[in-house]
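Can anyone check this?
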Amino acid sequence: MELRHLRYFVEIAHELHFARAAEKLKLTQPALSRQIAALEDELGLELFNRSNKWKIELTDAGNMFFLEAEKILQESQRAVNLAKSAAKGGYGKLAIGAISSTIESPEFSYALQEMRRRYPDLLLEIFDATSGGLPELVRQHTLDIAFLRPLPELAGDESLIYEHLWNDKLVAAIPQDHPLVRQVQFLPGSLANESFIMVPEKTSSSQRQYLNDFFRSNGDFTPKVGIEIYSTYTALRMVAAHLGVAVVAESYMGHFAERICYRFFTGKSPEMPLCVIRASDHSSKSADLFLNIVKKYHRY
């Protein structure tokens, strides 16, 4: 028995008319009749009652066979669809690592939405981690792709494929009732006497170094760090609690809006590069699809 025999039988069962079924299947009626007769011979039973030449009906055996044949055809088509989807990278699992500021970005959210819409059978796993924790997860193939800030050790690392994507603008997060909120111009030097909340240097040395360099060059001071915290969300909670100020990615604007004011700097705005990494010995079509979608949304 072949799948085509099931398709022929199911079409006749729907139409209850050999001529109409043959027309839909693009077969001649005699050829279709021979195929069904051969199927009945193989099964050793009649599927159709042909006592009335103007009308055929399913036998009890035919009714039961019809229900199961439809299930088999649906499953076979699902197998075909899944195979095609897998070949394009739209089936299985895609493990994505990202720093929290990237997860907050519209590019990332829109890309996830499009992946879910286009590939509903693809399981998406999102790992929220610091830049320092992501490379090893990619090397171990725990993650297919990761979005992070540049790290000194990534330069020349042949185990990873590294690509710079774009620069994220940074903004100052200060308590809503802070006197600086009322300043028309918000110069980098405005924060010279403030206590900063920053990620530890061992977690993101490049970010700490960049901010130190930025404020020395544009504000003539080195930030005084009062609290080190691994999570930007926690840092913002501390800003809301008047425990200091923070410099965060633009994508965080709006969080704790009733208690935090976000200000762009007057003049030169600080920016932090965002890069993406993949393991050089591990390819993922799903990861390629996701990265292309992320890039598409950032361009517009």
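Reply from J.R.: I decoded it. The chain is about 40% helix and 25% strand.
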